[in-house]
Design brief:
Blueprint: H1 3-8, E1 10-17, H2 23-33, H3 45-51, H4 58-63, E2 71-76, E3 79-84, H5 93-100, E4 105-111, H6 118-130, E5 134-139, H7 148-159, E6 163-165, E7 167-170, E8 178-181, E9 186-189, E10 201-202, H8 211-233, H9 239-243, E11 248-252, H10 261-271, E12 278-279, E13 284-285, E14 293-301, E15 310-318, E16 321-322, E17 327-329, E18 334-336, E19 342-344, E20 349-351, E21 354-355, E22 360-365, E23 374-376, E24 393-399, H11 405-417, E25 422-426, E26 432-436, H12 440-453, E27 457-461, E28 466-472, H13 475-484, E29 489-491, E30 497-501, H14 504-513, E31 517-520
Parallel strand pairs: 1-3, 1-4, 4-5, 5-11, 6-11
Antiparallel strand pairs: 2-3, 7-8, 8-9, 9-10, 12-13, 14-15, 14-23, 15-22, 16-21, 17-18, 17-23, 19-20, 24-26, 24-27, 25-26, 25-29, 28-30, 28-31, 29-30
Helix pairs in contact: 5-6, 11-12
Bound molecules: guanosine-5',3'-tetraphosphate.
């Protein structure tokens, strides 16, 4: 197969949702339909949490929370599907944001009873900003839930999305009969826990009197009325609008019951975007450029407890990535060669000789990579759009074992390179401050420092509300600010100035008083 064909047949996406909406179950069912896993009988979702690729870390197994992001690739009808798993736990939201930089589209799962939940709002906002094409899957139709139209209104309002349903449910909960697939004009009838997937019954004309045989008088009438309403209210589906991120198709189903999943997947591989290019600071990179380029969006340590290396996950943006070929690590200005580039399939990983745009390649790394690093064939490029967010929780970190200070320094350095947390050093005190977006990370850091680096740390409270990176063209004002606020200044790992505001008031007054200073809340400026 030619280079262009290889690119064209790839679909790289993530499934996002509020915890418990059914992301894991849907992922598992997609893998099932893709033939990537074989499971007999209905599988409870926590099975995949225990057995699938997203559970490498010890701590994760202990807590039963998916703290890692992994990649699951599979082939379906000659399409290479790459699902990037995102951690469900909100404390790892930043990990999810970064994963979203490596996908070309997303599927948002919404629980029909709960509607739009906070985590969904945050994640969709990131997608909306990036104009990532979105498909919506409304899950758990086998349970009583919100009325279809009300739910669509809620999604449109809370998520600021323009929707158009491509399937429509016939009742829900105990009376759920199935969905009418508007996209393919087929009727799919629901049978709980059915493993076999029935073909849809073609009903291109809903006025066909035979419909009553399947749905009865009342439900037939309701379906006809509702579909008429949909036609009048919602825009006609247009693939190019979807691909621009301006229109989101909506599907209904029940992941647990395998219902609606195959239709979602079939539609997905037809309409979802092929690998798209990315902006660098220098220029836009198209996937079909022949030179390989890619960026690191995730670093994962200790996937195999017997080895101490880390794996850097690289999204291939352009060109063909080849095993054992030297590539340029732009930040370090060094050539690196990879003898074991790894591809992640559903439940296994394997060394591969080549990867194509849209693929995620795992590179064994002894500490050369940081999140956001760019690899090329020599061109000096820097991929954009992999921000660090200003953390929300802070603690001083102190060495609890004086014999292990080197290990602690190394551990903190590497863990923060992975993006687990951010590290600041107080300018006058020299004390190390760890900032995170979730409280769980403090435990993760302590645990991993001990188990991976043999270092012990102790946390001490710090009165800190927010950090802001500061820049200014007005050197005199910046110098003045730095002199007056010396005790509230720190450096981040890259040596950039950071203001430590101990209260909203302190931040506000500083911003009002020092008008020529810009206060940044993401590291991308
Ligand atoms: P998440 O990854 O988004 O956190 O959700 P997950 O798939 O783990 O699903 C959360 C719960 O919702 C699970 O139940 C799962 O079985 C259930 N679920 C998923 N899809 C459906 C559906 O279509 N219908 C119904 N009725 N339930 C669904 P649990 O009780 O938390 O776990 P388990 O013991 O069933 O595995």
């Amino acid at each position: 197969m030619g280079f262009t064909d290889e690119i064209q047949r790839r679909r790289t996406f993530a499934i996002i949702s509020h915890p418990d909406a059914g992301k894991t179950t849907l992922t598992e069912k997609l893998l099932l339909f893709g033939g990537a896993i074989q499971v007999a009988g209905a599988v409870k979702s926590n099975k995949i949490k225990k057995t699938a690729t997203s559970d490498w870390m010890e701590i994760e197994r202990q807590r039963g929370i998916s703290v890692a992001t992994s990649v699951m690739g599979f082939e379906y009808h000659d399409v290479k599907v790459n699902i990037l798993d995102t951690p469900g736990h909100q404390d790892f939201a930043e990990d999810t944001y970064r994963t979203l930089t490596a996908v070309d589209s997303v599927i948002v799962v919404i629980d029909v009873a709960k509607g739009v939940e906070p985590q969904t709002e945050k994640l969709v906002e990131v997608c909306r900003m990036r104009k990532t094409p979105i498909m919506v899957f409304i899950n758990k139709l086998d349970r009583p839930g919100k009325d279809g139209f009300e739910l669509l209104d809620e999604i449109e309002q809370k998520l600021s999305l323009r929707l158009t349903p491509l399937s429509w449910p016939i009742n829900m909960g105990p009376k759920f009969k199935g969905v009418y697939n508007i996209f393919d004009r087929n009727l799919y009838l629901f049978e709980p826990n059915k493993q076999r997937v029935e073909e849809g019954i073609a009903f291109s004309d809903l006025n066909n009197p035979f419909l009553v045989q399947y749905l009865g008088d009342d439900d037939t009438r309701t379906l006809r009325e509702e579909l008429q309403l949909i036609e009048g209210v919602y825009p006609e589906f247009d693939v190019s609008e979807y691909l621009r991120g301006d229109l989101c198709p909506v599907f209904f189903g029940s992941a647990l019951n395998n219902f609606g999943v195959k239709e979602l997947l079939d539609c997905f591989i037809r309409i979802a975007p092929k690998p798209v290019g990315r902006e660098t600071e220098e220029r836009f990179i198209r996937p079909d450029e022949t030179s390989f380029t890619g960026f690191v969006f995730k670093i994962h340590a200790n996937m195999d407890p017997n080895h101490r290396d880390r794996i850097a996950f690289v999204r291939v943006v352009s060109g063909r990535f080849e095993r054992n070929k030297p590539y340029h690590h732009v930040r370090l200005d060094r050539k690196l060669k990879f003898s074991n580039p790894t591809a992640f399939m559903a439940q296994k990983k394997e060394v591969v000789d080549e990867m194509y745009p849209g693929d995620i390649v795992g590179l064994y790394d002894a500490g050369n990579f940081k999140i956001g690093d760019t690899l090329t064939e020599g061109e000096l490029l820097h991929y954009k759009g992999i921000p660090s967010f200003s953390p929300e929780l802070f603690r001083y970190v102190e060495n609890a074992d004086p014999m292990k200070s080197k290990q602690l320094a190394k551990g903190l350095d590497q863990l923060t390179d992975e993006g687990v947390a951010q590290l600041f050093t107080g300018k006058t005190s020299g004390r190390k401050i760890i900032g995170t977006v979730g409280v769980l990370q403090f435990e993760v850091i302590q645990y991993r420092l001990l188990h991976e680096y043999g270092a012990s740390c102790r946390y001490e409270p710090i009165n800190l509300y927010k950090t802001a990176w500061i820049t200014s063209d007005n050197k005199a004002m910046l110098d003045d600010f730095k002199a007056r606020k010396a005790s509230a200044l720190a450096l981040d790992k890259d040596g950039r100035d950071v203001f430590l505001a101990d209260s909203p008031y302190a931040l506000q007054t500083a911003m009002e008083k020092y008008k020529d200073i810009r206060f940044h809340f993401t590291s991308e400026f």
